[in-house]
Design a protein that fits this description.
single chain, alpha+beta, Dna Ligase, domain 1, D-amino Acid Aminotransferase, Chain A, domain 1, Rossmann fold, 3 domains, six-stranded antiparallel β-sheet, globular
């Protein structure tokens, strides 16, 4: 469960980490009233469950109550990154002198938590890792052993910070670790944690993801609207009974089985692509469900091509092929589709695809490589 920014900030505030003065607004008049109460320049932030909202126009500034009302009128009811904006966080603008990145996350490969800190806050940590990896400190922590302030201070020692700054950042990291354990979080992130001209450290932005399997232990999150986390396409997929998750790439993925879907997503990454979604159509091979799934993926504007990867156990490959052909025919947008069929009625399915002019491949690797080549070929000809 992804908490919205204002929800995450309420959590960190409970643990005595300061946040900017402000509150949530669902109308332009509420935004105006909040700006008047704050009494200085404010920032209005769309409350949506996706990253990158700032670059998409979801974070705007206002120099007074009247301007705050105008900005709120433009943001509320709009759609940012396919998410409807129904609420805004209206906060004081901070006088920032330094920005830091702090986070605790689950590292599945290491089977532990990883603590991250950087002196380059306010930007994507992936970008920092690519351009200035020396500005990131990492520490893997066994939850049983815990994470003490001495360990946090040691982790930060390579940053050439003052002792006061190191001590305060270490305190906050230890607090974030406590939040992670006590709230069953998979991620707790402050980006940025800022230092103001007065020397105070304030969480200018916060992000928390709670493990869905632990929600029964956390009645405090019962009021959270899970629908706010989902993109419109995820909501539609749920309505249709499809296991679908939006991702940020441009290669669509349609498979039968969660494990096969994850493998296909990994394979797209491995060969230099970027998956646009996770979609498991299930094991039944129903023509209508398969067709709806492919049409859903094709309808995503960012998708430049789709790989359909099917292993036919109880799923009949000929029915999947029929669904693929019908979906391509019915889709209002024409994008390349590469198909891999293996298993029950494989030959019949491949024959159906061949007769319809749909490209098929003998296996998953070939299909992924094929769709990426098709996508790059289309880009080259534009």
């Amino acid at each position: 469960m992804k908490l919205l920014e204002y929800e995450a900030k309420r959590v960190v505030q409970e643990y005595s980490i300061p946040v900017p003065r402000g509150d949530i607004a669902t109308t332009a008049l509420e935004a105006e009233a909040l700006a008047r109460d704050i009494g200085r320049m404010v920032v209005l932030k769309a409350q949506i469950p996706v990253s990158g909202r700032g670059k998409a126009g979801g974070i705007l500034f206002a120099d007074g109550p009247d301007r705050a009302r105008e900005v709120a009128q433009g943001l509320l009811g709009s759609t940012i990154k396919e998410c409807p904006v129904t609420s805004l966080l209206v906060e004081e603008q901070l006088d920032i002198t330094e920005q830091y990145y702090l986070s605790i996350a689950v590292d599945g490969l290491a089977k532990s938590y990883v603590v991250l800190a950087s002196t380059e806050g306010g930007v994507d940590i992936e970008q920092v890792a690519r351009t200035t990896p020396d500005k990131i400190a990492r520490c893997w922590v066994d939850p049983i052993s815990g994470f003490a302030q001495a360990k946090a201070s040691e982790m930060l020692s390579g940053f050439n910070l003052s002792s006061r700054t190191t001590d305060r950042l270490a305190q906050i990291l230890v607090t974030l670790f406590s939040i992670t354990l006590e709230k069953d979080a998979g991620l707790v992130e402050l980006n940025p944690l800022v230092q103001t001209s007065s020397g105070e450290f304030i969480a200018a932005d916060a992000r928390i993801i709670i493990d869905d399997n632990a929600l029964f232990r956390h009645p405090e999150f019962a009021a959270h609207n899970l629908a706010e986390e989902a993109t419109p396409r995820e909501i539609e997929a749920k309505r249709q009974g499809l296991a679908y998750v939006d991702l940020s790439g441009d290669t669509g993925v349609v498979t039968n089985g969660a494990g096969l879907a994850m493998s296909t997503v990994d394979m797209v990454h491995y060969f230099g692509g970027s998956p646009a979604n996770f979609l498991d159509i299930g094991g039944g091979g129903n023509v209508e469900i398969t067709k709806k799934g492919l049409l859903l993926v094709l309808s995503k504007p960012e998708v430049k091509g789709v790989v359909v990867n099917i292993f036919g156990g109880i799923t009949r490959c000929d029915l999947v092929a029929q669904a693929v052909v019908e979906a391509i025919s019915e889709s209002s947008v024409k994008k390349p589709v590469a198909v891999s069929l293996m298993g029950t009625n494989q030959e019949e399915g491949q024959q159906i695809l061949s007769e319809a002019g749909v490209v098929s491949f003998p296996g998953m690797e070939e299909a992924v490589v094929g769709i990426l080549k098709m996508q790059r070929g289309n880009e080259h000809h534009r």
